[in-house]
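Ticket 4471: requesting a sanity check on a complex prediction with 1-O-phosphono-alpha-D-glucopyranose. Repro inputs:
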Amino acid sequence: MIKKCLFPVAGYGTRFLPATKAMPKEMLPIVDKPLVQYAVEEAAEAGLSDLGFVTGRGKRAIEDHFDVNYEMEHQIEGTGKESALEGIRSLIDNCSFSYTRQINMNGLGDAILKGETLIGDEAFGVVLADDLCIGEGVGVLAQMVGLYRQYRCSILAIEEVPHDQTSSYGVIDGEKISDNLMRVTNMVEKPDPKDAPTNLAIIGRYILTPDIFDIIRGTPPGKNGEVQITDALLSQAQSGCVMAYKFKGQRFDCGSVEGFVDATNYYYEKVYNRNR
Ligand code: G1P
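Returned structure tokens:
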């Protein structure tokens, strides 16, 4: 079964400057919880407890978040504030956390390849914390793990986006297997709307088989001169099989200010306010 999950968290988050000047964008909170914790919770819910982070300079706060803070925890011991740390404590107790660095920002494909040292030779999940997903019933990654059991190949999550937004995403085309599932035949990274094969956009959830590492090594730089996971997955789809899954649930693009505000409003109304 899949036990490992990779979190590429080296990106700068320039869209949130100055907030992200000295703080990782993954630590920005949606109400009272940082984005990266939502991502880790989704992986843990899917049964993935071996968690690897591809970090970079200025990302130390992520490591500290998934660790104890003795002084502060001692201070709030026995007070009502203790319960606020229950969620993060349970993650720390039940998961292992490993870190490696991406030295140069050379694209998502390169970031995933840097994670090879944490993953080894087994299938693994990839979660981009920018995409905050609320699964219907179960989380999106858990839905995909279920599909992996059946198909044993790489799986990526997709959703329909407005045609004029294709240049923000990897876009796929494929043969329909069922209502929610396609076998990928084509993929393009961030195409202009006029060149996009469809409006089916890849969102930041993947299950990858470990042959992807060799494929990435053989993948030349693509869009923006960076090594793109989309290009590597197209090779994998052409020589083997890649599935695209229209997940059940909702996604917020927290890499954009608008999506971040929408996610904040959603959580405030649906989760935070209700639990008080
Ligand atoms: C990355 C991928 C892209 C995918 C997107 C999902 O782009 O390269 O294919 O659609 O994540 O969020 P980024 O948003 O990191 O530029």
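Notes from triage: Residues 108, 128, 130-131, 169-170, 189, 201-204, 228, 230, 255 surround 1-O-phosphono-alpha-D-glucopyranose (CB under 6 Å). Leaving this open until the requester confirms.
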